[in-house]
Design brief:
CATH class: Alpha Beta
Bound molecules: N-((E,2S,3R)-1,3-dihydroxyoctadec-4-EN-2-yl)palmitamide
CATH superfamily: START domain
Radius of gyration: 19 Å
Number of strands: 12
Shape: globular
Strand content: 25-35%
Number of helices: 4
Length: about 250
Amino acid sequence: EKKRIVESTSKPDHAISLSSSHPFYKEINDAINSHLNRLLMEPVEEKDGWVCIADQGDLKVFKRELEENGIPIDPMKAVCTVKGITGHEVCQYFWAFDTRMEWEATLDNCHVVEWLSDDTFVSNNVIKRVWPASQRDALFWSHIRHVSKRNDEGPDCWIVVNYSCEHPECQPVKYVRITMNVALICETIIEPPASGDITRKNITCKITYTADVNPGGWAPASVLRAVYKREYPKFLRRFTEFVVDKTKDKPILF
Ligand code: 16C
């Protein structure tokens, strides 16, 4: 696979969609399918060990306490409904690299390591240090996809998956590397007006967010859990407000 070549127009030289011979091809499709199946099978609610850690009405965050070799790896799930934006818009901004630092409040910096295709790239996030733990970073591919209705029951949705990977040009030498499997899945609900065109007043986006993160090394559980409880709702609020603001004067991207 060719490395990203930036042309004078800054347009990356890469394929429209990832070739089936690419080493990440199967992993990406498997990750997307498993997130979609999980969304359909498991409603986001307080049961089977899931505890609600933030309830702001339109925004709810749940966690399930889990440890692996003494390291907390609590899976997180959140649901959020936002008026005036579509699932396509929400996923586009969650995936887009050029605006990531405008809504990401927990990063020191980030950079693209390689563009794989028009819908997939690998990037490196350097996360702000949380005392007394060592500073962390993450290396992951990000893939965006539209999923058409599979049947009458199934949802028409947009999905972004951010999934940890390795890359020869970004070895974990400077920071403790976290690993993660994060998905943002969005459905758009349209309530058509009695007459006239659909406006932003007629649309609502239903967002489901899941994050399985392994902090990659020793981290004090009580500090980590307190940071998660504060940061996940803050991220969803800040990010969705960012999308509302970015799109308010633009044509609706269905
Ligand atoms: O999904 C989000 N962002 C995506 C695009 O950047 C991407 C990133 C996901 C990373 C998620 C988890 C990071 C956990 C870091 C663990 C650090 C251990 C520190 C030890 C503590 C004792 O998919 C949105 C992600 C929203 C993340 C909310 C939780 C982040 C906690 C980060 C800690 C830094 C806090 C700095 C306080 C100002």
